[in-house]
Design a protein that fits this description.
By secondary structure, the chain is an alpha/beta fold. 35% of the residues lie in helices and 26% in strands. It has a single domain, classed as Rossmann fold, CATH 3.40.50.300. A six-stranded mixed β-sheet has the order 6-7-8-3-9-10, sandwiched between helices. A four-stranded antiparallel β-sheet has the order 2-1-4-5, with helices on one face.
């Protein structure tokens, strides 16, 4: 579904991605782990169109998309849940969710709104309240729900467990797993490497803008370098 080939990206003169190559097959959860500053979020932004690339190709369902603007990639079937949630604080929970569907032709959103509430029931109590009044965990649920409202085929999840209490981390990752069982394809960036590897099919380790290791999630989890550097074992 997604093919990233020899992608490079820079902020001014500082190159952050040095020829990254990876792929995500339909129906997979693929996780990308690595230290802060390794380039994980830059790569997610490159796929979603927020960050320009300086070399390489990005293909979605066989189509080259590196020239498409971000909003066109959403319409094509790619949605990103950004690091730090980035909900629209003054707007209500309901309006945040409706904005997630702006690129869709159909305006009949009742079933999709109901589906988000099924995944995250606690949002219903804040339906008409400003999103900025929600807790961090509730905002994370809202951000995921907003991305789902675009009806993506590929979901980019950037640090969904950041700042969450352990019970909310478990709930969010359980939702991610359930979305995969429903057929959604997911590229997951996560600092909690152990939790990410537990739900992923395959994994890539990114170090200073380069892929240092890849394989199925179980093999990566058992790799001694990963266990020492990211799992504290």
């Amino acid at each position: 579904m997604l093919s990233v080939e020899n992608v490079r990206s820079a902020y001014g003169r500082i190159e952050v991605l040095h020829g990254v190559t990876l792929h995500v097959d339909a129906g997979e959860i693929v996780t990308l782990i690595g230290a802060n500053g390794a380039g994980k979020t830059t790569l997610m932004h490159a796929v979603s169109g927020v960050q320009p690339i300086t070399g390489g190709t990005i293909r979605f369902e066989g189509r080259s998309i590196e020239q498409l603007p971000a909003h066109a990639r959403v319409a094509a079937g790619i949605s990103q849940v950004p690091e730090g949630r980035q909900v629209f604080d003054p707007l209500s929970v309901q309006d945040n969710l409706r904005l997630g569907a702006w690129s869709r032709r159909s305006r009949d959103l009742k079933a999709d709104l109901a589906r988000v509430l099924q995944l995250f029931p606690m949002l219903e109590a804040f339906w008409e309240k400003p999103a900025g009044t929600l807790s961090g965990g509730q905002q994370q649920m809202l951000a995921i729900g907003r991305a789902l409202m675009a009806k993506p085929r590929l979901l980019l999840l950037d640090e969904p467990s950041m700042g969450l209490a352990p019970n909310l981390v478990d709930h969010v990752l359980a939702v991610v797993r359930s979305l995969k069982h429903e057929g959604l394809t997911i590229l997951l960036v996560e600092q909690n490497a152990g939790a990410a590897l537990a739900i992923a099919d395959r994994a890539y380790v990114l170090e200073t803008g380069r892929i240092a290791l890849s394989g199925n999630a179980g093999d990566v989890h058992n790799d001694q370098r990963v266990r020492e550097a990211y799992l504290g074992i």
